[in-house]
Amino acid sequence: MLRHPPGTEDLRRAADELASRLPSALAPFARLAFNYRWSWALGGDELFAAIDAHRWEACGRNPLRLLEEAPMVSLERAAGDRELIGRAYSLEESIRDELARTPDGNRGDPEHPVAFLCAEYGVHVSLPVYAGGLGVLAGDLLKAASDMGLPLVAIGLLYRQGYFRQRFDESGWQHEYWVDVDPPRLPGAIVTRDGTDPLVIHVPIRGRDVAVQMWRFDIGRVPLYLLDTDLPENKPIDRWIASQLYVGDPVARLAQYALLGVGGARALRALGIEPEVLHLNEGHPALAPLEWAATRVEGGDSFEEAFESARARTVFTTHTPVPAGNERYPAEDLMRVFGGLDRRLGTGWAEILDLARIQAGNTEDAPGMTALGLRVSRAANGVSERHGEVARSIWRPAFGAGSDHEVPLAHVTNGVHVSTWMAEPVRRLLAEHLGEDWERRKRDPDTWAKIADLPDAELWRVRCELRSRLVEYIRERATLDRLARGEAADYVELAETAFDPDRLTMGFARRLATYKRLNLVSRDLQRALKLIDGPRSLQILLAGKAHPSDDSAKHVVQQLFKARRAPHVGERIAYLHDYDMGMAQWLVSGCDVWVNLPRPPLEASGTSGMKAAMNGALNLSVLDGWWVEAQDDCGGWSLPGDVDADHEAQDDRDAQMLLDTLEKEVLPLFYDRDKDGIPRGWMERVKASIRTSAMRFSAERMLGDYVETTYFPRAKGKGASPKR
Q1: Distance between CA atoms of 265 and 1, rounded to whole angstroms?
Q2: What is the number of other CB atoms lying within 10 angstroms of the CB of residue 697?
Q3: Same-domain check for residues 156 and 286
Q4: What is the DSSP annotation of 562-596?
């Protein structure tokens, strides 16, 4: 990594200033707060919670806010706790040593890092610049880069209101609201030129030069720079550009893409960073290589020379086969928002718009950011083996290929950050049996040889502990959710004693869209209700946000709410409000079965199932996304992944197969106990689930694949380009 990436001193000053306002013994807490590396260290969360557990949760587990808002009595009590202060110094020292360690055999040039550009980052619940899976995947990749020592910097946007918050009314209808983010209360710092004046760049958007400052957040070794337009010299409409993540107005979204792409490239220049690789995570930042090319045109290169030079360093990942995820826009909107790009590139708008069309030269074909991302990149990939196949089919016309297999679009299957998503009780159990350093060795297959020898009793104890913790969490959350909806007192009271820590717990939580088919759970409602009745039954947790404009998905949830007064529903089924990373960690660690029911082939990956699996949950999933690659070794169950144009018939079949599997296979296996009360057959599958997911579907494996196949391929070439 660059010796001292810009903003390093700004973060240090922010930590020192915070420490100066605290009891002196709490100085290590102030320093830890300004690097999110604490968030995946064993005991990191517990360390901050020990200062004031109530305030820790009330401030959204934001360490800066905790230290600023905790009552003085709590701070002084913590400062006088020698054991707690010792733990803080120990954690600080271990993180410092790790960040100073020279990585072994890693590739990449510290002076010319990979630059990763993405519209959202799910690093931690306290940094609300993410919406869902795309952002959480990006955050996991940054953490893996830190763990592996890969030289990488990240660029994104600092949203002043983040993504929407969610509440339901009594009918089950979703309502959205936004909460202002106060950046000075986040554990980052404005990047300055000299310790006082912010480093400001200017980005042409809608015919005006918009002033942009940068905030830096440290994710272990990786600096994350977030661009911010909320400056007094900007017009109100320009200050609003980085307001809401995935803002509804399409022209406003294009302004965000200009800020991310053009602004991202200019930010790298201003920071003095010359990346060897530009990684575009989805099409949102696809203008970045064009801005890079524009700089070379200004230096005297022709457009063709500059374009090929920028393209040679750019790689692109597409995450969705869903049409809504591949937005297209009227050509006049791109020309208005991206005005001046033609002049700076030394070419005409016809040439630029053709780069963004599936069929170059077809003026009836609306341009879009995904097609642009493909054309400005030397390499492109989907995010699972099956998604790669689907993406090749979708984008075949752009490449003019004679068949799908001729399309040069590969796949790198997603992975998740083990140390973030594996619950601490599981991590500690594995450390006891696999060795204290197992997390550094997780890419080595030999690390996992001893998983089969884990004592069933110990692993079952951990699984029961996680389920019990989840039940406590659900009782509190469900009670508060029902009170907020204005439910009747008797229904609220059911939540206070809801769920049983010994009952099989099934989870379905993800971004809600109609293709996710949450409705399969209740399609045969009477039969489904029988599965929650009796001592050997199941309890179901549901959560997820529908896009504000997706009324169809909202209606699916509303239909579920109509059954809430049926017998046992109130105490054995809960739909939780406002799904986020914090809630996800409770659900993926505590559920016994994780369900995924997409309409094939519309699931690109499905990383929530990986997170659940590495905690010992068993997946019950449609054969789509990552599950196609994992089903044989991960110990779960599968529903067919066939494509069927008759959606009604397909949904009827899949709903019955889901209930059949739960009734005849899942429930009996879970409740089949030996004389010691342990479900031996279940535990065999749990071990397979942990082993396969943590070894083959980790973010470290994913990033290793990017390094070897995409960032620094051994046989470098220009790559195949879509037709221009």
Answers
A1: 18
A2: 26
A3: yes
A4: TTTTSTTHHHHEEEESS--HHHHHHHHHH-SEEEE
Whole-number Å distance between alpha carbons of 721 and 706 = 19
Per-residue DSSP letter, 422: S
Q: Could you give the number of structural domains in the chain?
A: 3
Q: Which of 11-20, 219-228, 450-459, 525-534 has the lowest mean pLDDT?
A: 525-534
Say how far apart CA 346 and CA 82 lie, in whole Å: 65
Q: Which helix (H) or strand (E) holds 275?
A: none
Range of the domain at 478: 418-697
Tell whether 292 and 183 lie within a shared domain.
Answer: yes
325-344 as b/e, with b when 16 or more CB fall inside 10 Å? bbbbbebeebbebbbebbeb
Q: Cα–Cα distances in Å, from 164 out to 128, 161, 255, 325, 695?
A: 10, 8, 19, 18, 34
Q: What DSSP assignment string belongs to 637-649?
A: EEE-----S-HHH
Estimate the crossing angle of helix 456-485 against helix 489-496, to 10 degrees. Answer: 160
Verify cis geometry, omega within 30 degrees of 0, for the bond prior to 601. Answer: yes
Judge contact between 13 and 124, C-beta under 8 A.
no
Query: Phi first, then psi: what are they for 130, rounded to 5°?
Result: -140, 155
- Considering the domain architecture, whether residues 341 and 457 belong to the same structural domain is answered as no
Structure tokens at 81: 């706790």
Question: Which residues is 411 bridged to in the sheet?
Answer: 382
Residues 362 and 438 in one domain: no
Residue 91's alpha-carbon distances to 13, 40, 87, 698, in angstroms, are: 20, 11, 6, 24
Which letter, b or e, does each residue of 386-401 get, where b requires 16 or more Cβ atoms within 10 Å of its Cβ? bbbbbbbebbbbbbeb
Give pLDDT tens digits for 584-605: 999 999 999 999 999 999 999 9
The CATH code of the domain that includes 674 is 3.40.50.2000
pLDDT digits (tens, 9 = 90+) for 318-367: 998 875 567 899 999 999 999 999 999 999 999 999 999 998 888 888 99
Residue 230 lies inside a defined structural domain of this protein: yes
- CA 497, 499, 502: angle at the middle one, nearest 5? 120
Do residues 357 and 291 lie in contact, with contact meaning Cβ atoms separated by under 8 Å?
Answer: no
Q: Give the global pTM.
A: 0.95
CB within 8 Å of 608: residues ≥ 6 apart: 133, 509, 510, 584, 588, 594, 596
Among residues 204, 232, 200, the alpha carbon closest in space to that of 215 is found at 200
Distance CA 532, CA 534 (A): 7
**CA distances for 427 relative to 143, 144, 515, angstroms:** 17, 17, 34
pLDDT digits (tens, 9 = 90+) for 76-92: 999 999 999 999 999 99
Query: Which residue(s) pair with 274 in the sheet?
Result: none
Strand ranges (E), 425-560: 504-509, 538-543
The strand pairing partners of 159, in sequence order, are none
Question: In degrees rounded to 5, what are phi and psi of residue 381?
Answer: -150, 155
Q: What is the DSSP string of 219-264?
A: ETTEEEEEEE---TTS-HHHHTTTSBTT-S-HHHHHHHHHHHHHHH
The tokens of 641 are what?
């992944």
Amino acid at 9: E
